[in-house]
Amino acid sequence: MPLYIKPEPVDDGRVLQERNAVERTSTTVSKVKQDPDAVEEKFDATLNLMDEKPIVPGPVANVSSADNKENKDQVVVATSAPQYTRYASSEEIAEMKDVALTPPSTTQYTPEDALKTGLGIVSVIKEKIRLLDIGSKMRKDVWRKELDELLAHSTPTTMIAICGATGAGKSSVINAVLDDTIVPTSGMRACTAVVTEIGYKPGRSIEADVSFLSREEWKAELQILLEDLHDEDGKVKAPTDMKSEAGVAWSKVHAVYPQIPLDFLVTLTADQIIARDPGIERILGTTRKISAANSKEFGKAIAPFIDSKEKKRGKAHDEKNKKKDKPEGPALWPLIRIVKVRCPAKALESGAVLVDLPGTADANAARSSIAQGYMQRCQCVWILAPITRAVDDKTAKDLLGKAFKTQLLMDGNYDTSTVTFVATKTDDLSCNEIINALHLEDDNDLLEIEDKIMEYRRDENAQRHIKEKADAEGKKLGQEFRDKRAIVLEYKEWIRALKDGKDFEPTLTAKKAKGNKSQKAESGKKRKNSGDSPKAKRRKSNRDDDDDDDDDDDDLDRFIVDDDDEDDMSDVESVVSRLTESDKDSDDEQSEKGDDDEAVDNLVEEAEEEIEEEVTVESLKTKLTAAEEEARAIKEKLEATKNTARDALKELSKLKTRIAKAQRQKNGFKFCAKARNEYSRDSLKEDWRAGVREMDQEAAMQKDPDNFDPSFEARDYAAIDLPTFTVSSRDYIRLTKQVEGDGEPTCFSHKADTQIPALQEWCHALTISSRERTARSFLQKLKTFAASVQSYLDDMNSVSEVDRAQLRQRWASDYEDPRKPRRPEQAFHPDRNRAASEETQGKEREPTPANPDGVAPVLKEKFIDIVDEAVWNLHDSFKSGLEEKLRIGSATASEMAYETSMNFGNSMHWCTYRAHLRRDGMFRRDLNAELCLPLTSSIAKSWGEVFEQDLFAEFGRRTTHAIEQVIEEIKDSAAAGLRERCRVQGDLAKEDAQIALRQMILIVHETLQKEQKETSRSLSPHVQKQLRDVYIRAMMERGKGSVARQKEVVNNGVQGARGDMFAGGSNVLMEKLSIAAETVGRALDTSLSELAQKVEVLMSVLWENINTTAEQLVVRSAAVEVVAEISQQIQFWIRAEEARRGQGALV
């Protein structure tokens, strides 16, 4: 059965509810009598001990004071939900079989399950602790902090930076991974021009925070954009090319201020421009929140903020504008600083956060700074590029760039667990080009597919021929049928006339005059109902032959059965009309008449030969019967022909589908796309290995050029396997019908073939290590905390008060010996020789403990030397590992500086070069970073090695030894009857200390990594600062030959400042590393101080006095039972986690 915890007490019912809780637990302890009044008074005191409210899930019924006045005897108490489910074994947890559900659910153990259950357990423990009378202030402080830390645990996030040039298909890939259209892919430029962070939220709605640039940030960008609109002579540039610097600048400013013309705009300052639109000025520095029920509504809601309002074209739009002549409003996309989106995407459910980083061609320093900050924080990097670049050998080696790879190496991220390459647009292909490029002409799979296509083509041609022949035969038979029907109808009319005694002159069945077959038809014109009748004029049908044939079938059945239908004479008249019109043709046309006319003539001749005899009703009926039989025979032939045509049409449809499928197999995952994807993946992986090898060789050559051996393999390069995905987001979106009206897929027939599902799974895989590590750490901390609570609750009645007092006088920090004078108040680290930080200088100093020989004070004194040594070791590691490399790298960078600057200026258009100068060297490229590249390359490997080594191994050993030493002294000072209990409690304290120490080192390591990442990126800003005056002087050059003079100013400025730039930059790096070491030392001080108190709290159960009143005995007894059960449940979860990792057997 699941455990329940007591709900939050409410208003006047608080005391009553607490009394009820005590009464419910009283059954666990026999022979204990309670005084209700005493219980009320005691609980009023104990509720304030921890000064915290219990965490209760679900709603709590509130009772207002007015309700209490009217219903004093009725207090509504909410029932609480279960905090966690109890399991009978670790096997049951591993399988997660919840028998309470119908049908039972079965899922595998996950870190999220462990975390969720653990948080429920923490809430139960917290509630039980709240009811205890804890006398020790140190215990209350330590437990409160531990509970807060445990409850603060949540699913960790893994930030994934998505990098790629314009046109790489980033937005489409993101939408495909999210299974929804979250990121705009056209007409909305802001989401590709600013950092966009996309995280998970439960539910169905989509939320976003759109942050705008501050006024100062927008002003700084406006100043640069205004400069981009002027040429070297200060004249206004005409932004004819919207991709040029002037075009980009005008598009941004005009988007925000569409009513300001260009010639007037360039006369204004940035402040004047901002002041012209108070509405825009009010938006600056704000954040707008957006919430929508679905992606369609989200797109509409966010469009006013990020729509680029590009010019629309088309007659409909032009006509609409003529009718609606309203001034264009301002666009906000150039003002956006960052967009944070939260959506219910399954791929992000496990903690992945996608960060879409824009390119470097952005004039805004704030956005560039944000992008750089994300690169420091992101644990993973996805590199996106169209697959065509990989096929053309423009693989990861060129796409990443040396500076980017150098930074990855310094960050310790140049490995296959961090970088993922995604080749996009795999559905964009030409089979012939791929076959020729990859020399696949003789591939068996290709030949098999092409043979199949050729076979289908042959079958298609054969079926098409059959259908054409059947259509022609059907047309002929159809005409014969209609002619025969006209004769049958004439017989019927003739018979009807004879019966009525009327004259009847046949036209189709009358005997012809020899030599002129048209005479009979000519006489037909004299008939009353001749071809001049409207009924005789047959109208052409718009229906196809099959429909006409169906009508013929119906008419046949009708005229054979119904002899009284006078309307059927229209068919006879139609034939007569057709024959009459044929007489008007020329002799040449008569000689060339079709087979249909000849057939009619033959039928008429046959009928005429038989009319020479006397015509009677009986003879006519005989002829009618014969004509009907002939009509039926024609109908059967016509039906057979129609069936043949239908069968051929069905086969053609099937063959068309087979050909399309075979062609998709050739294009897609069966051959061409598959072959290119495999080739691209292999190329990217091999190129990545080559890049690692080059970086290792460069580092080895710089380290020891005299003994450098190119054949030496620094690592197993074959084992390096870069995660690579070849994806088609377009076909995936079409297969999933994510976008309505987007058509059918062009290359892939199955979602798995697009590799988007694999990329979605990769999102989960990238987070699994951090999720499992977090869950494992949480379970271990929870285990030791529960054990600490359980040891506190254990019965200590067997220990005499004398033995307790002896240990308390010796080791309790709060014990004050009246026989000893109290030490004066002083800082607790009197001999600390490390400089105090600004943070610690302003803080209240730690008071001197009442007993300086207590456990915590003694440990803190020991920890001082340990931390000092750890910080000194960090300084020494930085100096020995990097100082010499920095000196060599500085010299190399100094020698190459002039050449680097010259090549930089000569490699681009003069307008682009000036755009770089206006932005202090950073635009589409970064001159400052390129100047630093020789230095950063020389130290990259050494830098990574320094921070990859275990810098805190000795620190951990010394800290553990100090704790064990104090615990051993406590055991030695205890009475003989208490030593076994000291040993047990000491083991618990050591285990708890080890877990806390591992967590401490992990946090300190993360702090150091953060500091080193920031430090490693400080060199380029230092160079930029040194060259800022050079950039300004260069931009002052105007007139003829100014470009050459600008380059000369920069090149000479770089040459003159190279000493301060690189030697000074090296000193800056070392200074920042020293500050980082001090930061680590302060973090260790704080953590070890808390650890010292934690050890004393764990050991203090040996000497603390406990409250033995009746009500506290009841509370303690109930808590003992619950905590014992909790400890067992925690152990089950730990074993299940170990089994998941394959490190332990389920018990």
Defining traits:
1147 residues, mainly alpha, two-stranded antiparallel sheet, 40 helices, extended
What does this protein structure show overall?
The structure is a single chain. With 1147 residues, the protein is mainly α. It is built from 40 helices and 11 strands. α33 packs antiparallel against α36 (953-973). It is extended. Mean pLDDT is 76; it is low at 1-82, 97-107, 187-191, 310-318, 512-593 and 819-845.
Task: Work out the number of β strands.
Answer: 11
**Mean pLDDT value:** 76
Low-confidence stretches: 1-82, 97-107, 187-191, 310-318, 512-593, 819-845
The tally of helices reads 40
Roughly how many Å is the radius of gyration?
46 Å
Shape: extended
* Percent helix range: 55-70%
Q: Hey, roughly how much beta strand do the residues contain?
A: 5-15%
Structural class: mainly alpha
End-to-end Cα distance, whole Å, is 21 Å
Major sheet size, sense and barrel closure: 9 strands, mixed
